[in-house]
Write a structure and sequence with these properties.
Blueprint lengths: L3 H52 L11 E5 L5 H10 L6 H10 L8 E5 L5 H10 L7 E4 L6 H11 L4 H9 L1 H10 L25 E4 L6 H16 L3 H6 L4 H14 L3 H16 L7 H8 L8 H4 L23 H8 L8 E4 L5 E4 L2 H11 L5
Antiparallel strand pairs: 1-2, 3-4, 5-6
Helix pairs in contact: 2-3, 5-6, 10-11, 10-14, 11-14
Keywords: Cell membrane, Cell wall biogenesis/degradation, Lyase, Membrane, Transmembrane, Transmembrane helix
Subcellular location: Cell membrane
Membrane topology: Single-pass membrane protein
């Protein structure tokens, strides 16, 4: 028989053995986990290195295929990288973009380039800096806020086409159908409503456009303007849908804001006024719609003008007019979708260009008497 002391000693020894085994097991688990993490990390790093290394190499070193790539005016590194990847000149746009950044490469020229999949990144960069620069035979600038008729006038001044020829083409059912088929999310059946004056009013984005030919077709002149509108509106599509609007309604509201507001800050506030008035069941009562409805510019509108019966005149209709009254820029589209919270129901532009806002008619009338009526 073992004594109590021996039993006690044996218990201590067994406890020590158990602790040793536990510690050993713990070390093994830690070792296995650490090894696994290191292996995974090493594998990930190796994978990334191999991926980047591959992306830095030519797409096809043995290819002699010549691919024409056009880099538009104003393209940044991200746009250029995306264009090159889409044409199969580079393997990965993101890697190329960071490669440019690391090498501090800039000053790329817009142009039409003949490139091959066998070129190295450095050869591509050199070509983009010294290649054939686009020589625009025709340049047309469309300022923000122009009506379609005014855009037609601008084009007519720079080409051999008459204003009528341009408007006939842009308003033709065949051309509109072509546009709708190309951009079904942008140009919908809304543009074909009975009361619409010009179906594509508001869909020609204001910007500067360059053309390789001196006298391209009317379609070739107009389509880039619609292409640009589609490009601009794409990021807004989900919000437009979530807010229960249509693209046509947003472009319509944006055109009213464009015509009324002198700057970005006032565009947003004026947008809030329009929202507030619609919520209160009030007419929008904006003067540019009267001018658009009448089809002629007037320095000062009369009481009779305000009563002019037309679907576009927001003094005689409720809510938005049937369609846009001008072609607007990004800031007006942004303001139309994201107005600030205000309680304003009226605004008044003074002869000095300041915009005064009011929460009630009494204050609005006071501003009118001070800045408009007393100056007549």
């Amino acid at each position: 028989m073992t004594t109590k002391e021996e039993e006690k000693n044996n218990g201590k020894e067994n406890a020590m053995v158990d602790k040793y085994k536990e510690a050993k097991l713990t070390r093994r688990i830690v070792f296995i986990i650490t090894s696994t993490i290191l292996l995974l990390l090493a594998g990930t790093i190796t994978g990334v290195v191999l991926f980047v290394s591959s992306a830095l190499k030519p797409v096809d070193p043995d290819s002699n295929e010549r691919i024409e790539v056009e880099i538009p005016l104003g393209s940044g590194s991200s746009t250029i990288a995306q264009i090159l990847e889409e044409h199969g000149i580079i393997k990965n746009a993101t890697v190329f973009k960071y490669y440019l950044k690391l090498k501090n490469e800039t000053d790329f020229q817009a142009g039409t380039y003949s490139l091959t999949p066998s070129m190295t990144l450095d050869e591509i960069i050199a070509s983009l800096k010294t290649g054939k620069v686009i020589k625009n035979e025709l340049v047309i600038t469309i300022p923000e806020g122009l009506h379609l008729k005014e855009i037609a006038e601008q084009i007519a001044k720079k080409t051999d086409y008459s204003e009528k020829e341009i408007l006939d083409k842009v308003n033709s059912v065949t051309f509109i159908q072509t546009v709708r088929e190309k951009y079904p999310q942008l140009v919908t059946e809304d543009v074909m409503q009975e009361d619409i004056k010009y179906p594509l009013e508001g869909y020609l984005f204001p910007a500067t456009y360059g053309y390789d030919e001196k006298n391209p077709s009317i379609e070739e002149i107009i389509m880039p303007m619609i292409d640009k509108t589609n490009e601009v509106i794409q990021p807004y599509l989900s919000d437009i849908q979530n807010k229960g609007f249509t693209v046509h309604e947003v472009l319509t509201l944006a055109s009213l804001i464009e015509e009324e507001a002198p700057d970005e800050e006032n565009r947003k506030i004026i947008s809030s006024v329009f929202y507030n008035r619609m919520e209160e069941g009030m007419g929008l009562e904006t003067d540019p719609t009267v001018i658009y409805a009448m089809g002629e510019h007037k320095e000062r509108l009369t009481f009779k003008d305000y009563q002019y019966q037309d679907p576009y005149n927001t003094y005689v209709i409720e809510g938005l007019p049937p369609g846009p009254i001008a072609n607007c820029g990004v800031s007006s589209i942004d303001a139309a979708l994201y107005p600030p919270n205000t309680d304003y129901l009226f605004f008044l532009a003074t002869p000095e260009g300041e915009v005064l806002y009011s929460e009630n008619y009494e204050q609005h009338q006071k501003y009118y008497d001070e800045h408009i009526a007393n100056r007549k």
